[in-house]
């Protein structure tokens, strides 16, 4: 009587061995990793590709029926959807220009989270000693005690460089604040900005761009304190004896000096220096959409032209809903990391041979391989016996 394995049994046994080998291979590979081995390298940053926003001139991608982009005289401008970050149109968006007091948007983004609004501080002489000549001031006085919230009203409404200097002192000093602002700009993907003076005062080498300022304005809208301060029309500021009224210098918000207030305007920040000209970052909400615009140094009209050009760009942006394709994104220059590779379950649960008194993956694979070899040998022997007996 022949007692060898049948052909089907042999095939089934070999298939089982192969399946075991495949299933245990990841665990065997993982078992080769020992404690103390160097960790795998971190994920590399994925940098964005080139953008048409770096091209000179007006950039827009209209559909049929889209309104014409208004002709404005600003050296640089940009219109973006604050919700999605999509840039709807721009002109010389990355041109580096002096920002004037619109740089206070970056100052606020950097310092606001660090100082509680209810904190009280008595101003010292040295905190005001370096305020630049000809600076806009809210009237901060040495020896007077202010709440931090009062000083922020001075920054956003009166564009007070004196208030900026005091807040910077509370934030670790002028140089520390400058460095932190630069770090914040890089983190937001605002790569055109170089900070020299946190208050926006004209300083050699200090520049920003329409793109970067729109990034700052949009980021500010996500901070409730920033959004509240930049949209405040009027407030009382502490003075000797009694407080006095201060009013926001953003004419699109207040409607002063013959500038009609813009419907749905949220606010943000205007600026002016003799070197920068008039600059403005503004945001408005209408029909479920929020737009942010930047206008830098109009070359036509007087000092109020920056508001009228911003008005035209906002009107165009709202009228162009669904009629233009984006030409870029305010998120386009942020550094994005690749997701870390998933760790196989077998690798995560396998340990070193010293950790487990049972069989290791290598031993199991070897055992199954031996079983498979034995099965094949028995089958061959069986066939040999059958052939010899006829």
Automatic annotation (TrEMBL):
<dbReference type="GO" id="GO:0009002">
    <property type="term" value="F:serine-type D-Ala-D-Ala carboxypeptidase activity"/>
</dbReference>
<feature type="signal peptide">
    <location>
        <begin position="1"/>
        <end position="29"/>
    </location>
</feature>
<feature type="domain" description="Peptidase S11 D-alanyl-D-alanine carboxypeptidase A N-terminal">
    <location>
        <begin position="67"/>
        <end position="298"/>
    </location>
</feature>
<keyword id="KW-0121">Carboxypeptidase</keyword>
<keyword id="KW-0378">Hydrolase</keyword>
<dbReference type="GO" id="GO:0006508">
    <property type="term" value="P:proteolysis"/>
</dbReference>
<feature type="region of interest" description="Disordered">
    <location>
        <begin position="31"/>
        <end position="51"/>
    </location>
</feature>
<keyword id="KW-0732">Signal</keyword>
<keyword id="KW-0645">Protease</keyword>
<dbReference type="InterPro" id="IPR001967">
    <property type="entry name" value="Peptidase_S11_N"/>
</dbReference>
<dbReference type="InterPro" id="IPR012338">
    <property type="entry name" value="Beta-lactam/transpept-like"/>
</dbReference>
<protein>
    <submittedName>
        <fullName>D-alanyl-D-alanine carboxypeptidase</fullName>
    </submittedName>
</protein>
<dbReference type="Pfam" id="PF00768">
    <property type="entry name" value="Peptidase_S11"/>
</dbReference>
